[in-house]
Specification:
Layout: H1 5-13, H2 30-36, E1 39-42, H3 51-58, E2 62-66, H4 69-74, E3 82-84, H5 89-98, H6 104-124, H7 127-140
Parallel strand pairs: 1-2, 2-3
Helix pairs in contact: 3-6
């Protein structure tokens, strides 16, 4: 009931020719996919905080994610990602078109989202940042 890939594939056929969409699914060549992409999409409905989202952001990719609590914890809509209404393929298609290659304004917006995404991961989700947050939590723990 939650697999919308057929609807998305159908919509992908009607997009401009400069916009190519690949549905990779599980892959062992993930770094190559990130490096070849213009945009990363996470259409999850109920996932926890996704490592794949953090990986894509760390690669400096513009990200489009479903507007669910776990994704809102990681990204700020319009700053380091774009969000779309969960299960709304038309809204997702609209966000994809907003970042489609070939137009200088869309290209700059896509690149700015990617730069901001990378900065977010570096400042909030790096090993050093997570370690510092853990140390702070441990230091706040009452000593028994």
């Amino acid at each position: 009931g939650r697999d919308h890939s057929s609807v998305l594939n159908e919509l992908a056929l009607n997009l401009p020719p400069n916009l190519k969409i690949n549905f990779f699914g599980h892959s062992s060549e993930i770094e190559r996919h990130y490096q070849s992409a213009h945009v990363f999409v996470l259409p999850s409905l109920s996932e926890g905080m996704s490592n794949s989202l953090l990986e894509a952001m760390a690669q400096g990719l513009a990200c489009i994610v479903s507007d669910i609590p776990a994704n809102r914890f990681v990204v700020k809509d319009g700053f380091d990602a774009l969000t779309f209404t969960p299960s709304d393929a038309q809204d997702l298609a609209r966000q994809l078109l907003a970042l489609a290659p070939g137009d200088p304004e869309r290209d700059e917006r896509r690149h700015q989202l990617g730069r901001n995404a990378r900065a977010t991961v570096q400042s909030r989700f790096s090993i050093d940042s997570i370690g510092a947050q853990l140390v702070k939590l441990y230091d706040q723990r009452p000593h028994l």
